[in-house]
Amino acid sequence: MRTLFFVLLSSFMLVACQQKDENQQRREELRKVDQDVLKRPYKRKE
Questions:
Q1: Over the Cα atoms of the chain, what is R_g?
Q2: What is the pLDDT of residue 17?
Q3: CB neighbourhood size of 43 (10 A)
Q4: Please, which domain of life does this record's source organism belong to (predicted)?
């Protein structure tokens, strides 16, 4: 019974870590896009 609980707990932790990594990657990509936009000269639409 204890082993089953341990397996469930470890798999849950693994999923949580994967989601955290994905969120971090998404944040880094967004930050990269933001920096690209900031580097580009601002063009006003006329």
A1: 20
A2: 84
A3: 6
A4: Bacteria
